[in-house]
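Fold it.
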Amino acid sequence: MSLPAIDPADLFQYALILVAGIAAGTINAVVGSGTLVTFPVLLGLGYSPVVANVSNTLGLVAGGLSGTLGYRREIRGQGGRVVRFGICSLLGGVTGAALLLVLPSEAFKIIVPFLIALALMLVVLQPRLSRMLAARGRAPGGNGGWVALLAVYGVGIYGGYFGAAQGFMLITILMLTLDDHVQRLNGLKNLLSWLTNLVAAGIFLFAAPIAWGPVVLIAVGSTIGGQLGALVGRRLPPNVLRGVIVAVGLFALFHLIFF
């Protein structure tokens, strides 16, 4: 009995999705915005926007866990933050996933470039803003206060709805509101992004169309990429990591405006 022939075009598509998953997992672990790699690939292969978005979210859950575990050393000692911000990310993810199921995507597509542009400006100005706040006796504290909690919840909504540049927005908020080493904040960012994707994926499992082939390929690729990203990201000096964040933010802004 002979095995059925495999179409070379299918093999190319599988390889493309797998490579995109590796790239997305790596980018997400370092700074975020890996969705800007996998989502366009799925669209280009003919999947509808909703199916591509949902399948991408499910696939990147594995990569998010991989990147979080890769940064577990930096996350240690942040238990209080994990609980406070984690609850906000989970609630935001539930809200965003629900919105995806009932609202058209045009609403977020209009506002997202403005949010990313604002986040970019804040990252660039973050050292100066921190010095100004410190001079006035209002330097970022250990828990970030209600402003940080609400901002993380808002990013969770966006992450559950679409997710591109979610990690970039999160790291911006954490850098502005928490007084800590950027690598520890990056580890916290990875955990919060993963929680948002996890709860959104749980909802999509029961209420949205899914393409399981891409889910599996992105999951495998992003798991590999998560470990690579953690290996590379934790070795970057703070100023270099900030530069990477700005570069990814500019790419995200360009992509969302022109594509």
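Residues 140 and 184 are 15 Å apart (CA to CA).
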